[in-house]
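Lab notes, practical 5.
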Amino acid sequence: TSCCCSLGVPRSSMLVMATVPAITSVPSAPPSAPPSAPPDYDPCDEELCADDPPVAPPSAPPNSGQATADVHFVGMKGGKFDVKGDDGAVYCLFSVQDLALNARFTHVNFKLPDFDPRSLVIKMVHGSVLTEAFITLRLPSEELLRVRYLASQPYTACFWVAKENDVRSGQVGLDETMCLDLKVMPALDFGKKVRIAIVKASPVAFNVVSDAWNITISPGGFKMSKGSDIGKRIDVAVNPLKKADTNNVVPHGLIGQSYHDSSAVQGKMDQYIPDVHGEYATSAEGEGAIEGNIDDYMIVGDPFGTTFRWSRFDDAKALPRNVNKLLGQKLLGTLHVSGAANGDTPE
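Output from the prediction step:
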């Protein structure tokens, strides 16, 4: 059972550890970023703590939706938009029947990488990054699996399994936590439909696979606005599996809502034009590319919460959104579906 994590969430949102159904160590790797034998590692991996921040992931590959730092989104059909979010607020990135992915936005002041030509005129950006991910899955046993992954602890992912009725009724007990660890316990199966794993990547990633969806959360860095310190962030990618198309419940959330779109919807994107002091403050909130406004996606209270305006977690049926009601530019979408939230890269 490895470690216990200090979570900084209200005690009322903690879960009682229940009997975990059919958990086994997983010798084989998740479908994305296969792990090798866990290596010896330094807690400050050179790729996370280098003088220059790691380059953000490339544009979303086929079958991947993304969200990356400051925070740049790629919808499931390739549409792009930026979201700053409120400092410390948690928003739903992806919601579908029995699965929800939320993330915490944190405001930061940072410098663009030296190789980014915009850094010649922009000396500081007042923006945001993703720092925590909260994943909730309903297991076949009708228990809830909740997983938390932190940018500050990239080699572990802490999780709880609890009876759903206990969670819904607010019953709580000891703050007991189990954790995956790349070196000690890198992966677990929950029956035949759910797998969670810390996998070796560049340097690591956290992977969640259900019977229909594959979510990968990758740690990254950014250059703080003062000194040589490197801040930490996470980036998110969501990939559908074959069963995703057979579900009567279409996804929603900042990433998921574009899954069934007929076009790539472009939303508001920050333009990075500096003021007289050489600084730029991001402000885009997904306008034009998302239904409603950013506040409709905020998760209030428990960061693992599954309730927001367009939640799909408990739905038995839900229809796709009407893109004709969106004000963003409609472009030819990708033949493959993908979605993401990512960090800054030179354009």
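Observations recorded by the TA: The chain has two helices and 20 strands. Helices lie at 164-169, 253-256.
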